[in-house]
Each structure stands twice: as C-alpha cells, then as structure tokens.
Amino acid sequence: MTASFADLSRRSLLATAALAPLALPRILRAEGQGPLRIAALSPLTGAGGTYGPAMVKAIRAVVEEANKAGGILGRPVELVAEDDQTNPEAAVRAARKLIDVDRVVGICGVWASSVAAAVAPLCWESGTMMLATAGADALTALPHRGFFARTQPNTTLQGRKFGEFALSQNAKKIVMLSPQTPFAQSQYENIAAAVKPAGGAVELLIYDDKKPSYRTEVQQALRGKPDAIVLGGYLPDTTVLVKDLLRAGFTGTRIAFAYSVNQKLIDSVPADTVEGIFTIAPSPAEGSPAWKHMASVTAMENPDPYSTQSYDQANLLLLAMQAAGTASGTAIRDNLRKVSQAPGGTKVGTITDGLAALKAGQAINYEGASGPCDFTDTGDIIDCQFRYEQVKSGKLTLLRIA
Amino acid sequence: MLSYLLFSVTIGGIYALLSLALNLAWGGAGLVNLGLAGFFGIGAYATALATGAGAPLAIGLCVAMAAGVLAGLAITGLTLRLRDDYLAIVTLGFGEIVRLVALNERWLTNGADGMSGILAPGKAALGVVGFNQAWAGGVTLVVLLVWLLLRRLDQSPFGRALRAVREDQELAGFAGKPVLRLKYQAFALSAAVAALAGALYAHYQSYISPDHFQPLITIYIFLAVTAGGIGRPVGAVLGAYCVVAFLEATRFLAAVVPGIEAVQVAALREALVGLSLLLVLHLRPKGILPERIPPAPKAPS
C-alpha cells in the first residue's frame, strides 16, 4: 500500500515535471500574462534588402521603448522578425510561421506590393492586423475586412498633390505626358479631380518610353498652349523629353516625380534644359517631434521614408492594443483609428507619451515620423507630407515640405 | 502549430512535384532546365485564367498541364542543338521571359498587381483548418501518384533509352534510339508536371504575381534534386521535403543563436543553405539516395 502510494506520487511528480514546461506558457497565455508578440516581416535579402534592415531596426526601437515604459497592458512585448526575401512565395511561408507558431497579433514593416498582396489573405483569415509600406492602389481594394492598412500614399494621393501644386502655380491647362505605367491612369484621373473644381483641365498623352525623340509628342502636347506639363515618366525617357520641350520653346511650369528628375538627370543634360523644373515626392515628417525622437532612438541621422513608416506602424499596433484593453488582431483593427486620429485627442509621437496619455484616460491622436498617420475606412493614408523641390542653377533646392 | 505543419507539408509536396519534373528532364535525359520557375508560372497563370473564366478545378489543372506541354515542346524545339551550360542559359532566359510577359501584359495577367481571389476549392466549405488538412492530404496523394508513374517510367524501356541519350546521344542514336523524340517527350512531360505544381500552388494560395516566379524557387529545386540524388525519383521527392523542412527549421534554429540581429539571422539562414549543400556534396556526392543503375543482363551463354 505504502509502496504503491509512493509509486503513484513519484509518477505524478514526474508527469508534472515533464509537462510543466509545455503547460506553463499555455496557462500564462490563457490568463493574458505572457509576452504579446508582434512581427516585422521585412525584406532583409533580395531586391528590397537595402531597406529592410533599417525598417526592422526602427520597429525594434519602438518595442524596446514600450518595454521600458512597462509593456502593453502590463505585458512585455516580443518582436519576431522574419525575412520576406522580397519574394511572395518565401514571404507566405514566413507569414504562416509568424501566425501559426508565434501567434503574433500584428505584422508590420511589409514592403513590396506583391508580398503584401500575398500575405494579406493570411492575415485577414486569421484575424491578424497587417500594416504595410506598399503603394499599389489595388491593395486596399482587397476584401481585407479592416485587417490591412498602409502608411505609404497610394497613387490617388500623389495625383492629387500634383494637381494642387499645379493650381498653386496658377496653371489651369495641364498636359500630363507619361509612358504606360501601372499608375499613369490613376495619376491622371486624380490630377483632373484636383484641378476641375478650380476650372482647370488636364489632358493625358501616353508615349512609348523607348523612343529616341519626342518631338511629335511635344508638338501635340503644346497644341493647346498648356500652362503646365506633368512629366510622368522614368529617368531615361524624361531625359529625352526635357530636351525636346526646351527645343520646342516651352516656357511654362514643368512638374516631375523626384525619382525621375533627380541629380543624376540634372548632371547629364545642359543646365538650361532642366532649370526651373519642380519635383514632388512623399516625404517623412522631417523635424516633427516623432521624427526627431525616432532619429535619436534608432541613431539614424536621416531615416528614409520606409523606416519612418515602420516606426509609426509599430507604435500604432501597440497603442491600439493598449487602447483596446485586449491583445488581439481584432482589437487592433477596431482601435487603430481611435489612436491614429481621435478627434481632439492629445497629439503624441512616441510610445512612451502615448501609453502615458492612454493610461491617464485621454484620447490620443498619433502624429508620426512619416506624417500624420490618419487612415480612411479602407486603410489608405488620408494625408502625408510631400517634399517640393525646384532645380535652381543645376541643384535641387528644397522649396517646402507640406 | 498544426496548421503551420500542414502548410509546410503542402508546400513540401509542391516542391516535390517540381523536383520530380526537374529530375525527369535533368536526371533522366540530361536536359538542364533552369527555367523551371517559368513552367511553374505558366501552370499557375493558365489555371488562374481558366478557372477565372468559370472552368472547374479539374479543367483548370488540365489546361495548366496542356499549357506546360506546349511550352515544353516549344522550348525543346528551339534548343535542339544546345546541351549542358548553353541549354541552361537559354532556359534561364525562358523563365525570365515568362515573368516579364506576366508583368507587362496587364490585360491578361493584371501585371504587377497579380491575380488575387483565385478559386480555392473547399475553402468556404471546410474552413481554414479543414482546407489545410484536405490540401495537405490531396497534394501528398498527387505527389505519390506522380512519383509512382515516374518510377514506373524510369524502369521501363523508355527510361533506359532516356539514360542512353543522357550518357551519349550520338551512341544512342547510332543504336537506333529516336533521340529527338525522346527529348521532346521527356521535356514536355517534365514541363507538364512543373505546370501541375504551379496550378496546385495557385489554387492553394489563391494569389499569384510575377514576383512569385523569380529564379529563387528554381535554385531551391536544384538544391533539392542535387541533395536527394539526381536520376532517382524517390531521391528528388525526399530532397524536396528535406529542403522545405530545412528552410523552415533554420528559422527556429537561427532565432536561438544569441546576440545577432534580424538581418544577420537572414544572412545566417542563407549561409546554412549553402553550407548544407556543400556538406551533402562532400559527404554524399551523388546525393542522399543515389541513382541505381541496374546491371546489364548477362548475355545468354
């Protein structure tokens, strides 16, 4: 009797000892005491490999700051970083691991549009929140039920900015010259939408981007005597186009993307060809409190747009959970806009300030390092700062950031 | 965890089909096909377009394989005089052409945005977990069927004739083997299996884009076939499952190495893939399960 009793207790002791490591995290998780996990799914290798490491660094800085401030909902935050290899096939495998094994509540720092489109279904099916820096218009049109949002302006917003800028230069008749790109049509429609109410009109002229000369296109564009010309192409075709515009004697306003009329183009053509061209590009909120804070905690002197966006995404994920009072993807989805754009809320730009304000019972309005970070119902960014520059004596000169 | 394992089994199965395809052309007939991702893509887009137009899954898979066969025949026809490195370069180019066409022909393939919402049979009825279980089982079954078929083919006179072409095509021709026809058949069949893998992938993921068909996957499959054993179907299948298991395991392995950043973890994973290939080639130069050449029948005395 004694022997069997001792035997029993030893067995149960052994069983308990063996099962304890397995059971413990489960119990803790059930009670909501274990660490809560968010993920960075960024390109660390492949074509996006130049951007990913800084993005992960920015996200990690937010997580460390949150833990220093006492964690989220009293729980420590754990960051799980996976490499998406800038390849949707590899990214899906990584995302499955993040969702099924690590059970992350949110994924941020997703860079490429194709990766975002491949991973998004996994997120909305499993109720995981996903924040991306991808710009393709189609992404927010996916049936994501609110589990997707992005901090990168889509083509719609960029088009509007071009239109508004043309108006500010007193241009009413505008011609947009562009090769066939995925965004040409949407860019044109949104310039039109911006200038129509002010009595302006836009004409779209699509050209073949491999031609050695654009004299006919330029003549056709100048037929209606436009006030402004929008150059929608890439570097090689824009180089040819600016020369032909000068030859045709066009003296009106020229507006271009900053990625096509860059210093490389300016250096490669005679100075008078490009003098006075305006360029527009999405810009981080340089000099804002969040931007300054981010630059100091990540030790980056001049953070690029993608890492500032990643910094904001991590902040938004964590603040939304704190505001919700529960740690789940659904909670983040339902509270994202309550922390990003609560009307009349306290403006915050760091996780420490945000947590303090939330704990004090205040509503908050997160103003990030990449911009105001306010979202539409479909997950697009409402407004973001743009950088306006002009070519002055062979140099790009900053006009303003707005 | 379970659904992650089921997912990995399904992806392993799709890799196994690709490995079987490569093994047939490369291990069987000696035709190096670096454009495997192209055939994979053709299958995926073919079924996405067919089922998008209202065809059921079975028709979609048939259309995918037919498209694969046609592409395979065309490539063989264009590269008849090429062998080894030269053939490898041309097929690599073919793979890129498929990707570029998918990227630029927006009216057909929706360009860089990719095709989303591809028919995912059973997803609505079975739920996410049931869908994962059904697909893991279904894809494994397809792998089993294709493996049995290719093993049978390997041991048949057709398989022996293919090997003769691989070893010395002049000699095979001299011995009366129809070298040209054998090449066409082997490459077309290989392309059909790769296209089938692509079709299954498209339906399983319900989203494809040109970026899916970068050469990365071709490299993984070459790794699988080399590690598993060139010229032996069971080796190719084993190699494929090993590669997927290895790729996934390194995530957990690299994460426990203390004191390294995420970007170093990513680099470490890539280094481990290279290191393991070196080790396999050093320790088992002919792969884990090397090809078995049956002894020549004894001449009747």
Structural descriptors:
heterodimer; A: 402 residues; alpha/beta; 7-stranded mixed β-sheet; 5-stranded parallel β-sheet; 14 helices; 14 strands; 45% helix; 18% strand; disordered N terminus; B: 301 residues; mainly alpha; two-stranded antiparallel ribbon; 12 helices; 2 strands; 1% strand
Structure, explained:
The complex is a heterodimer of chains A (402) and B (301). Chain A is built from 14 helices and 14 strands. Chain A is an alpha/beta fold and 402 residues long. Chain A has a 7-stranded mixed β-sheet, sandwiched between helices. In chain A, a hairpin with a 2-residue loop joins β13 and β14. Chain B has a domain at 7-213. Helices cover 75% and strands 1% of the residues of chain B. In chain B, α2 (36-52) runs antiparallel to α3 and α10 (216-228) crosses α11. Chain B is globular, with a radius of gyration of 20 Å. The model of chain B has no long low-confidence stretch (mean pLDDT 91). The A-B interface holds A 40, 42, 44-46, 52-53, 56-57, 60, 80-83, 85-90, 92-94, 96-97, 99-101, 112-115, 117-118, 121, 125-126, 136, 138, 142, 182 and B 1-4, 7-8, 11, 106, 111-114, 116, 128, 205-207, 209-212, 214, 216-217, 247-248, 251, 255, 261-263, 265-267, 269-270.
